[in-house]
Amino acid sequence: MTNAQPKPRLTNAAREALTCYLFLLPWGIGFLAFVIGPVAASFVLGFMDYEIVTPARWVGLANYIELFTDDQRFRMSMGNTLYYVLVFVPLHVIVATLLALLLNQKARGIAVYRTLFYVPSIVPIVAGAILWVWILQPEWGLINSTLRLVKIEGPLWLASLTWSKPALILMALWGSGAAMIIVLAGLQGVPQHLYEAAEIDGANRWQRFQHVTLPMLSPTLFFILVLSVIASFQVFTTAYVMTGGGPAESTLFYMLYLYRRAFVLLDMGYAASMAWILFVAVLALTLVQFKLASRWVYYEAEQS
Amino acid sequence: MTRVNSVAKTGVQEGISRRSLLKNSAAVAGLALAASACVAPGPEAAGDEGMAASQEPVDIQIWWRINPTTEGVLQVFQEQHPDITVSLGDLGEAVYGTPKYVTAVAAGKGPDVSYQNRHTFRQFASRNLYRPIEDLLERDNVDKGNFMAGPIADLTWQGTLYGLPHTAGTRYFFWNRTHFEEAGLDPDVGPETWDDIMEMAPQLNKMEGDRIVRYGFLPHFPPGLSDQLLIYAMENGGVSQSEDGRTNLINTDPWVEALEWCVHMIDEFGGGNAAASSFMEGFAGQPVDPFAQGQVSMCSYGNWMIGRYAKFPDLDYDGTGLMPVSAANEGAQVNWSCGWTFVIDPNTELVEQGWEFMKWVISEKYVRAAGTVGLELEKAEWARQQLPGEPIFAPTPPVYQPAMQFMLDEYYSVLPERQKIMMQRYLDSETFSVGCGQIAGLAAAELWIGFKNAWESALTKKQTPQEALDASHADVQKALDAAWENLESS
Amino acid sequence: MIRDQAIGPQSEREIHPGARWQPLRRLLERGGIQILLVLGALIFALPFVWMVSTSLKADRQIFAFPPIWVPDPFIWGNFPAVFIYAPMHLYFFNTLVIALAHVFGAVFTCSLAAYAFSRLRAPGRDLIFMVMVSQMMIPYIVMLVPLYLLFAELEWIDTFYPLTIPAMLGTPFYIFMLRQFFLTIPMELEEAAIIDGATRLRIWWTIILPLAKPALATVAIFSFMFAWNDFTGPLIFLNTREKFTLSLGLQAFMFERRTMWGPLMAASTMMIVPILIVFFLAQKHFIQGIALTGIKA
Predict the structure, then answer these.
(1) Are A33 and B32 within 8 A, CB to CB?
(2) pLDDT at residue B44, as a whole number
(3) Judging by DSSP bridges, how do beta strands B434-435 and B58-64 pair with one another?
(4) What DSSP assignment string belongs to chain C?
(5) Which of B252, B462, C23, C293 lies 20 to 30 Å from C119, alpha-carbon distance?
(6) Distance from C240 to chain A by nearest Cα, in Å?
(7) Phi then psi for B110, rounded to 5 degrees?
(8) Nearest CA in chain B to A133
(9) Is the Cβ pair B109, C157 closer than 8 Å?
């Protein structure tokens, strides 16, 4: 580290850039070694008919053409996924934020509460799934029994064509503990003096939340938003375990269909082309989010 | 034979060229590692490489399951075969898709021997995923006639056998005798036709207010799976595809009627789909089903329940019979059979060792070794669950007849009468069962998905049974056409 | 419903016109929060309670209807039975090794990259960043086959390397997350150090890392949990039982058409209790950490 001390031969900007690249090097090595190759391979595979047991065969755009013109499951699974993303992502960000605000309070036993709220995120899915079957059980399940107390007849949840997706969304929301922790960590970065200043200015709680907490939290919320979108487009495990895509393919999400193509029907080439369509769609959405971010995300470090 | 071998060879070559396609990334990785961490490859890599002295045992990869039974059994196998050591792997979830196995095979690194379900066997055998074994059978005088006929037919594609069948199972009809007595029905006589079921089911239903708390009959069995439709279609004389395997027939009348009957049963005697589905929903996790809980009086289930139901001391599951059939099909005996099979990888060089293992694992020697471990585990199970009485150990029937005979003599002869009867029913039904591999044909994976979709679409009233089966038929037919086209063009 | 994070000492200083009502208001507020916490905890802790209760049940009680919450009889034997089917102590150690590699990668490699992405200007940096973010958008499962091939070439199949080396070299998720946190740390804090001629590495180590303790604790927990529960990676890349992880070990209780729910739940309980303890001990770091007020003032 000491060899940085002698007289710099490089300009400051060049040195900074060099340092930047050096700091990125470990990740860069991993990227070059373990990511770029498989990614390129999957891209090439997208133009091939590769059914694993038979030799791969170049078919050009055939997979893509079939996907867009002759595969109603592709459209349907994309529709199911969009539904999931549109409903789940906003709820997820809101629930995680509210939970974090709640758990940021000074209350007796707050450590225990934080741990308990996080529990669903770490219970193995096989153990959680059985419980959820019972929570959602239409006749005597927890939710519908509760609704019956207020004279509402609950839906069939996982057995219903219209309520199967909301049921899975509910399940996913229950695992908001992970995002909650990120927000909780983000809240610690809000400097106390800002609250004090706002208070002196006579701001009430809502105003303080709106003008201090939210802006200071915006980088964290932005992160959660971007990641939720990326992850929701790839929603898989809950549906795979709980419904297998049913009933009548109402929870056949994009990744579930992709998985089926790849590992059940052994259509690896087709699955690869599906992956690339998903990639382009999500990338476009993410770029839009980054563009819009300048309007609402506040970075302390960029102010000086 | 020669044709198959040459196709397999091109497969190997293609595998290599695929590998070279990806070699660049491997080279980059190698460089990166040399630069960053200097991690030496695992020590076992060195041991694997050739130059093993002739006495040194040869190690083969077998992907099966990892549990105390398989481990115990392999220990015995290795003691009896000092020239072979086995690296045991687990296939993971394996009935409807095996990502682990598929990934390894696609990378050209499949295990030497693996355990395959017959659900999709023909589809993959036709694509040379498995090594044909006719030459080995002939050389070692292994008589196909010593196996049950159905499973052997399942594993045969265009006259060539592709694997050795290990286990098999069929269906029975179970009824709860206590419920029959309560309802004033003769507990010794179960339903033989669909009409019988329709007559008995409402008498066996038990109401609490306007809610059904015990169902006489629900067609959803086995819960958690999605191939229920198949058995009802067979009961009504349905066949899944034409003789030549080119035309899918699941939208023909027997299938549509069977699905209509199921929907009708649920609407008429099951309180409608809402009530019935929500009732079954709670049992989606399979192992303890509503029949075992005394909440359903009649159901169709399989011989794998022989030992399982014995663990429910209060369950009077004695009533078992053949599958009831529709009026149109009266007098017919129907069933389908499925199970597991061992296969050899077409690219492996360790054919001899793999074959040695396969011959062993289907034989009496395996039954004895598995029985020794299994009996101990069963005893431990009874102790763990604090069950009354003697442990009932009912191992899964093998397909190889001498092994089956040994199992009957050794393990079933000491079991209570009802287990013996159920075993006999299984043996009878295996003689007229159709194998799941034959049923599924070349578009197997699509077909099992098609069953699930049609069943769910009809039950949820998204589509009529006819529409639902038409849709599934179209999917399967498309895959079937593609499979044949692929087969004939290669 | 929205409450800001009024931290105790601060509300003490609250200047409010209706000061007379303040004690009552505070009482109500505290009560309301307490109720919300208890209610939330009930909902969120349900699976854990269920899991533990099921781990003590006989199979025939597990699917009884209506559900039984208190086992009768208690089947303590489910716990020793676990070891017949899966040597959990061995799997525990294997999983720990892999998880610690993930934590190392998240805390050191990722924070280094995150520092570069948030602070150091270089041509093409933002493009590299977007490439890194987009890495997360390629579904992992289509990369499995080429990855398998790659690891097979390296002779890494059935070793821990596929599960540790890539993670140690950094994961986009954690880099992105840490970058977001670093961006909220005011620049002034390191400007003085830069003027004093400190190297960037030194600044990262002595200023940024201590300041980002809550964020680092978060990525540490996340990466640990991910590795602890990961199923796909170990499933595909590990073959022999001596190298299995806990999540793979759970498979031993799931047979074709049969699951040994009691031992499965007992094993799951054994698997997550240590994590809960670690989490419980670590969670104070999520709130402790930054004393930015002091530094600023």
Answers:
(1) yes
(2) 38
(3) unpaired
(4) -------HHHHHT---TTGGGHHHHHHHHHHHHHHHHHHHHHHHHHHHHHHHHHTTS-HHHHT-SSPPSS-SS--TTHHHHHHHH--HHHHHHHHHHHHHHHHHIIIIIHHHHHHHHHH---TTHHHHHHHHHHHTTS-HHHHHHHHHHHHHHTT-TTSSHHHHHHHHT--HHHHHHHHHHHTTS-THHHHHHHHTT--HHHHIIIIIHHHTHHHHHHHHHHHHHHHHH--HHHHHH--SGGG--HHHHGGGGEETTEE-HHHHHHHHHHHHHHHHHHHHHHTHHHHSS--HHHHH-
(5) C293
(6) 22
(7) -65, 160
(8) B282
(9) yes
Q: For residue B434, what pLDDT is reported? A: 93
For chain A, give every domain's residue range: 68-302
Q: What is the mean pLDDT of residues C235-242?
A: 91
Q: Which residues of B touch C68 (CB under 8 A)?
A: none
In the predicted model, residues of chain B with pLDDT beneath 70 are: 1-54, 93-97, 224-225, 281-288
Q: Taking CB atoms and an 8 Å limit, are C141 and A188 in contact across chains?
A: no
For the stretch C209-226, pLDDT in tens is 888 888 898 899 889 999
Q: In 3D, which of C21, C51, C204 has the Cα closest to residue C115?
A: C204
Architecture of domain B171-337+424-489: 3-Layer(aba) Sandwich (3.40)
CA angle C168, C238, C226 (to 5 degrees): 45
Q: Which residue bears the tokens 């052997």?
A: B152
Domain A68-302 has CATH 2.40.100.10: no
Q: How far is B63 from chain A (nearest CA, A)?
A: 17
Tokens of A93: 């960000």
**Cα–Cα distances in angstroms (integers) from residue B393 to residues B130, B375, B379, in the given order:** 33, 6, 8
Average pLDDT, chain C: 84
Q: Which residue of A has its CA nearest to C135?
A: A35
Whether residues C36 and C113 share a domain: the answer is: no
* Residues C192-215 pLDDT 10s: 888 888 889 999 998 888 888 888
- State whether C221 and C267 are in the same domain: yes
- Please indicate, yes or no, if residue C72 is contained in any of the structural domains: no
Rounded to a whole number of angstroms, the distance from the CA of A8 to the nearest CA of chain B is: 27
Residue A188 and residue C200: Cβ atoms within 8 Å?
A: no
pLDDT exceeds cutoff 60 at A188: yes
**CATH number of the CATH domain containing C257:** 1.10.3720.10
Q: Do B41 and C154 touch (CB under 8 A)?
A: yes
Instruction: Give me the residue from C148, C165, C235 closest to B92, CB to CB.
Output: C235
Is C139–A135 a contact, with Cβ atoms under 8 angstroms apart? Answer: no
User: Checking DSSP bridges between strand B58-64 and strand B113-117, what pairing results, if any?
Assistant: parallel
Burial of A295 (0-12, 13-18, 19+ CB in 10 A): exposed
User: Are residues C46 and C175 located together in one domain of the fold?
Assistant: no
Q: Residue B184's CB: how many other CB atoms inside 10 A?
A: 7
Instruction: Look up the domain containing C124 and give its range.
Output: 80-296
C122 touching chain A per CB within 8 A: yes
Sequence-ordered alpha helix ranges (H) in B148-252: 149-154, 177-182, 194-204, 228-235
Chain A 98-137, CB below 8 Å of chain C: which residues?
A: 98-99, 101-108, 110-124, 126-128, 130-131, 134-135
Specify the number of domains making up chain C: 2
CATH superfamily of B54-168+338-423: Periplasmic binding protein-like II (3.40.190.10)
Complex prediction ipTM: 0.89
Does residue C11 register a pLDDT over 80?
no
d(CA B85, CA A88): 51
Residue C63 near residue B288, CB atoms below 8 Å: yes
